[in-house]
Amino acid sequence: MKRTLFVIISTLILTSCVQESVNVEGLPSNTSNNELTDKTKQIDIDAELLKVYTDLQEKEGWYVVPKNVHEMTIYANTKNVDTVLFWLVPTGTETWSERQLIGYDLDGSDGFSLKWEFGNQVLLDHILVQALGSDFYTIDDETINVITQEE
Fold it and tell me: Most buried residue, 9, 13, 27, 140, by most Cβ within 10 Å?
């Protein structure tokens, strides 16, 4: 009888400990411990590109390079990122293998950006901005389009 009573009391105590919810902002109070662990791992650790833009004017989804302009600055607002890579990718299908790394930024303390001097190159390309996560696992990317203004 004492042993049975001990098992029942122990079970009740353990059950109440396991069912006690941990209040994490944004999660329902009835979230299980496994769900809680999975969701808290996802909170604020994934690499994220919030906004990618240039110092050029945008027209109909393309950043337009005016005549006699030979450089641009590309900006990336990020979250949870250590490194940002900037790739020039030709337009067309299956052109990823023809990409060219045009620069990178390892120091996000002043924001991630790249001042790119492309000279007299005529552009009709994509610039893929690739953010590498500070968790050494996640990656986010965004593509912008650039075109040289016609004469």
Answer: 140
